[in-house]
Design goal:
The structure holds two protein chains of two kinds. By secondary structure, chain A is of the alpha/beta class. Chain A contains eleven helices and eight strands. In chain A, strands 3-2-4-1-5-6-7-8 form an eight-stranded mixed β-sheet, with helices on both faces. In chain B, strand 6, helix 10 and strand 7 form a beta-alpha-beta unit. Chains A and B meet through helix 2, helix 6 and helix 9 of A and helix 2, helix 6 and helix 9 of B.
Chain lengths: ~290, ~525
């Protein structure tokens, strides 16, 4: 069984030593790399940490852990993490590569929003993958929200999205969440399809949020994903899923800083309630716990 | 022009000043290994695996004698590639089938790794090979996974065993057990069990997967892993190895642009072979795993590797030594000249070769003007000579030249130009060889190239090439720069570049050429 990997334990062992020496920095590098921060960000953080340790003159191990946590908190919380849903209906488009947990996230998000007293309709615009529509419908039922299904198999996803928005306007539904098929960012045809879905929705109402779902187990490819989806779908927020596993998702720091798009939601399981807003302090604490 | 990846250019930088050493020094190796380490980390290879791996590469690089065909950077890269291919392809094998059907194949992995899609692909693949697969829906967790498997089965044209509706209802262990009985009764010869995705840290679900394994005693347990996974690959793989003791690995979503370092992490930490690669959402996007392709994908050094391969193929060490002797003893003949040219041709398209070199960008125009057929024409002229004439150009009087021109379909002017160029070259190489500066490929223009230029401005060129002064001639010929092959690296016998020719490549470009072509 994989023991839950913990930066804290590693740091405790490294900073348990009385003096900070080369090994200390090697260990810090290892721990950051193992958390998927990536070589570039790791180098950066280490350089900053060296500076701060020198400036503050700390030698105590707990102080160094605190410095690291503060540094990460600072960098993670530079962005506004609130969902912007003031439009009526407010449309949320959910995008991402295959298997990151888009449909599951939508199920949880629908429950979350309807729990806050807003009416929700979800649009099953993943008309490509086998049984994706049914999967979403099941989540919608669990969350107790409406669902708009495609009228025929393999219907153009943009038209499903259009109908979902139409449904919301006709029924006065507050929030529209549109599911899309997973697509690898390298498939230009499918990425163009995403741009089209967005354009078609915008004929009726502006799109309030485009959420890119990222799998916490992803490595450095997460950056390429963010770049591509930002370009084609105008992503406004990130959702980090599968954080209940042993992966730390350190790559989101690089994604946030490079694209300027904040992490807005965090998924931690397959239950209806396993979704929360992104809390930089808690996230940083988990990284160094 | 082929673009060089980051690693390629970084390697070039870190080894800029290394030239012709007998052995790789620890400093050379360390510099290269550092870059390799970073490249592997960028490719998401797990840190522990990277440490082991670079340690081994370093050891081997220090122990190896320097190959004559390669420069130090190339050599380290080649060792790295060898090691990668060895690890990735260590235990290449096919699916194993049970002696007594049904063969049971169980799929396991994280959520969203692509198990259900893979189940369909595998079934279709097996059906094509005259098997009768049965898909079993044991993912009773994820909403409508059962449904998805049914649709996939229908598309693949294979049967699906799904007695439970799923969505949290039903016991996957029981379903798995029943499916074996069902397959025996209905004579399906392969059973493919799709299981729910689970995290390595989820003890309860891992126990369930282990129970399915115990209940069905599968012949193969395939661990499906996403090519995009990061450092967590190793923890996950180990957890699944402990949990279900998989027998093989399938790498999914390889159609993306992830470098797929996870492949290396999983294989080196578990010792299990990768059997298949999954490369798209269609049911036919499924192929056997190719270790060499994966190795160059992880390193992202396809260009350099191709170049190394070509340099090694074209390079013949004995030939080069012989050539150096000939220069010294003044017995360099047109035959040798021809031989060298043919060696050069073996390296493949010169334009492509040039395109693979860093710093070749500024020579682009010249490249575009270069007609490779000129080499063929030069060949034709030499081949129209008698052996005696090839050995001694002094024999070539007017009537012989006319005969040769007719025989090769060229003009006497062309023949004259070639003979002159050859004599220049032989003279210069002799000086160079005797002067003991074997690394200066100062032969002026390459045979066949001046020829090409001569088409447009024939007489001037000819005049230029008559000049007895190599430096002057070189100055006159601001022509195309062509890299010498590996042979030049060892013997200086290439048809190389006059260093610092006006209008020609700069010394930096020459350095780059030398570095990648010769042993530098």
């Amino acid at each position: 069984m994989a023991s839950k990997w913990s930066l804290g334990t590693k740091l405790a062992s490294m900073f348990g030593r009385p003096k900070i020496d080369d090994d200390t920095w090697d260990d810090l590098e290892s721990t950051l790399l193992s958390a998927d921060f990536g070589p570039d960000v790791t180098d950066q953080i280490i350089a900053l940490m060296r500076e701060r340790v020198a400036k503050t003159g700390v030698t105590d191990s707990t102080d160094v852990v605190r410095l690291l946590r503060e540094l990460l908190e600072e960098r993670l919380s530079k962005f506004d993490t609130t969902l912007n849903l003031s439009e009526r209906p407010a449309v949320i488009l959910v995008v991402g590569v295959n298997g990151v947990g888009k449909t599951t996230t939508i199920g949880k998000l629908a429950k979350f929003i309807s729990g806050a007293g807003r009416s929700v309709v979800v649009g099953a615009a993943d008309t490509f993958r086998a049984a994706a529509v049914d999967q979403l419908a099941t989540w919608a039922q669990r969350a107790g929200v409406e669902v708009v299904r495609p009228q025929s198999d393999g219907q153009d996803p943009a038209s499903v999205a259009f109908q979902t928005v139409e449904f919301a306007k006709n029924h006065g539904t507050d929030i529209v969440i549109v599911d899309t098929a997973g697509r690898l960012q390298t498939k230009s045809g499918l990425m163009d399809e995403l741009s089209k879905i967005r354009r078609v929705i915008e004929k009726q109402v502006p799109v309030s949020e485009v959420l890119l779902v990222l799998d916490a187990t992803t490595g450095q490819n997460g950056l390429a994903q963010a770049d591509a989806f930002l370009e084609h779908a105008g992503v406004t927020g990130l959702v980090l899923t599968k954080l209940d596993g042993s992966a730390k998702g350190g790559f989101v720091l690089a994604v946030q800083e490079r694209t300027g798009i904040p992490v807005k939601l965090v998924g931690t399981g397959e239950g209806l309630a396993d979704l929360s807003g992104f809390n930089p302090v808690a996230f940083a604490a988990q990284l160094v716990e | 022009m082929a673009t060089f990846s980051d690693l390629s250019s970084r390697l070039t930088d870190s080894l800029k000043n290394l030239r012709g050493k007998g052995k790789l020094s620890p400093a050379d190796v360390d510099g290269t290994v550092r870059e390799i380490r970073r490249a592997l980390l960028d490719a998401d290879v797990s840190l522990d695996v990277v440490k082991d791996f670079t340690g081994r590469v370093r050891e081997r690089a220090l122990g190896d004698d320097v190959s004559k065909a390669l420069n130090p950077a190339q050599q380290v890269v080649q060792i790295v590639n060898d090691e990668l291919v060895t690890i990735l392809g260590g235990e290449q094998r096919r699916l194993e089938f049970a002696k007594k059907p049904p063969t049971v194949i169980m799929l396991a992995g994280l959520q969203g790794a692509g198990k259900t899609t893979l189940a369909g692909k595998l079934a279709k693949h097996l059906a094509k090979d005259k098997h009768t697969p049965l898909l079993v829906a044991c993912d009773l967790q994820r909403p409508n996974a059962v449904n998805q498997l049914q649709v996939v089965g229908e598309k693949a044209g294979v049967a699906v065993f799904a007695p439970e509706p799923g969505n949290g209802v039903g016991d996957p262990v029981k379903v798995a057990k029943q499916s074996i009985k069902y397959a025996q009764d209905k004579v399906y010869d392969v059973v493919i069990i799709d299981t729910a995705g689970r995290l390595g840290v989820d003890a309860e679900l891992m126990k369930q997967a282990s129970d399915i394994r115990k209940a069905t005693n599968p012949d193969e347990v395939l661990f499906v892993i996403d090519a995009m996974i990061g450092q967590d690959a190793i923890a996950t793989a180990k957890a699944f190895q402990e949990g279900v003791d998989f027998t093989g690995v399938v790498l999914s979503k390889l159609d993306g642009d992830a470098r797929g370092g996870a492949a290396l992490s999983v294989v080196s930490s578990t010792g299990r072979p990768i059997l298949f690669a999954s490369t798209g959402e269609g049911l036919d996007d499924f192929e056997p795993f190719y270790p060499d392709r994966m190795a160059s994908r992880i390193l992202d050094l396809g260009d350099i590797l191709t170049l190394i391969e070509q340099a090694q193929e074209a390079f013949d060490a004995d030939e080069a030594t012989k050539m150096a002797e000939k220069f010294k003893s003044d017995t360099f003949t047109l035959d040798d000249f021809l031989g060298q040219m043919q060696q050069l041709k073996k390296m493949g398209s010169l334009k492509n070769m040039m395109g693979m070199l860093p710093g070749a960008g500024r020579m682009k125009d010249q490249l575009d003007n270069f007609d490779e057929r000129e080499i063929t024409r030069t060949e034709a002229i030499i081949q129209s000579m008698t052996p005696a004439e090839r050995a001694n150009t002094k024999l070539l009087n007017g009537s012989r030249r006319l005969r040769i021109a007719k025989g090769s379909g060229m003009t006497v002017t062309d023949v004259n130009a070639l003979v002159n160029r050859f004599e220049q070259a032989a003279k210069m190489m002799k000086t160079v060889a005797k002067g003991g500066v074997p690394q200066v490929p100062g032969m002026g223009q390459m045979a066949g190239l001046a020829h090409g230029k001569g088409r447009s401005g024939g007489s001037t060129k000819k005049k230029g090439s008559r000049s007895g002064n190599p430096a002057k001639r070189a100055a006159e010929n601001a022509g195309l720069a062509i890299p010498s092959t590996g042979s030049s690296g060892a013997s200086g016998a290439g048809f190389g570049l006059g260093a610092g020719k006006p209008g020609g490549p700069t010394p930096e470009e020459l350095d780059a050429l030398q570095k990648f072509l010769g042993k530098g």
